[in-house]
User: Which sequence fits this backbone?
């Protein structure tokens, strides 16, 4: 089926804009990290943009998102302010977590973005809790839980999958399979590397999709979300993707060859979508240039916001240990 038969110009450009924004934001984070503006750990989403962008198209504002420590892209696509994200990575009070979480712990209740979780598989039980609450309260919501292939080897994954299926919870499990758990290749830590097959053993619908193709991800996610929302049962989506950068900025990336990385860059989701839009006469070079300019300006504004931010006073260090609101 041709792209023109399934994609309109406005939507295609919006998908491209979102992926480009994530890519350029992450690239700017590399510069700022090198300049010691951003400190601590930094895990980049470069190469994986099609997953977050594709999946988010089918989610509603009332749905919940739970992500990993590689979550800048998810937060941006969900609608968390770029300024508040950048300020958070600067450790500023104006950050979405008041500067206390940094890169790995972005959080924004207004957009129902519940992390940013620094522990591998740590977000899975949280997703189960959110979905269970929605079910008890009769709310027709979906909780989308993003996690990497490394999480599949953790006990929390199996416990969460089992409970979601046993209790018929409305959870979309989105596995971002980038082939490496930090520096360990998937075939070295998983006896069964077909992760969708493994998920299916929990009696839930599960399938794989090309995570480097934003249109394929969007289509698969729409079907999966519809099944979760209408049927009230969990669904598992394995997005086969690849990160072009190392695991983190501290990682020397010695566990894979340069040739392997270059081979996967041939499937970069951003130029792939640009080419499909161009071939279908839905966009041209001027359209892309305009997007790039607007994105650059917005990222500059986010950096200026972070730079102008303030650090939390030392006397507030112990705040939020206890709930400060009214009794609940």
Assistant:
């Amino acid at each position: 089926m041709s792209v023109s038969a399934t994609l309109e110009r406005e939507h295609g450009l919006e998908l491209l804009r979102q992926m480009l924004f994530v890519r350029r934001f992450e690239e700017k984070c590399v510069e700022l990290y090198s300049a010691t503006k951003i400190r601590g750990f930094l895990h980049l989403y470069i190469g994986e943009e099609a997953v977050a962008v594709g999946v988010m198209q089918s989610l509603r504002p009332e749905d919940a998102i739970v992500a990993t420590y590689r979550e800048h892209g998810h937060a941006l696509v969900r609608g968390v302010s770029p300024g508040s994200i950048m300020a958070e990575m600067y450790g500023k009070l104006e950050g979405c977590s008041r500067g206390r979480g940094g890169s790995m712990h972005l959080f924004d209740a207004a957009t129902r973005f519940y992390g940013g979780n620094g522990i591998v598989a740590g977000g899975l039980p949280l997703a189960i809790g959110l979905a269970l609450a929605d079910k008890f309260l009769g709310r027709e919501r979906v909780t989308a839980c993003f996690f990497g292939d490394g999480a599949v080897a953790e006990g929390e994954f199996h416990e969460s999958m089992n409970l979601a299926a046993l209790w018929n919870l409305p959870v979309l499990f989105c596995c971002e399979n980038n082939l490496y758990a930090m520096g360990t290749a998937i075939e070295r830590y998983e006896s069964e590397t077909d992760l969708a097959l493994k998920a299916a053993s929990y009696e839930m619908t599960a399938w794989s999709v090309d995570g480097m193709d934003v249109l394929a991800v969007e289509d698969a996610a729409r079907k999966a979300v519809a099944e979760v929302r209408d049927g009230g049962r969990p669904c598992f989506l394995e997005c086969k993707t690849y990160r072009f950068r190392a695991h983190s900025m501290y990682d020397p990336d010695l566990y894979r060859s340069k040739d392997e990385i270059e081979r996967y860059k041939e499937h970069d989701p951003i130029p792939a979508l640009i080419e499909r839009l161009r071939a279908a006469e839905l966009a041209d070079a001027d359209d892309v240039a305009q997007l790039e300019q607007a994105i650059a300006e917005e990222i500059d504004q986010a950096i200026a916001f972070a730079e102008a931010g303030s650090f939390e006073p030392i006397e507030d260090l112990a705040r939020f240990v206890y709930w400060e609101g009214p009794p609940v």
The two ends are 54 Å apart (CA to CA). The first strand starts at residue 64 and ends at 66.
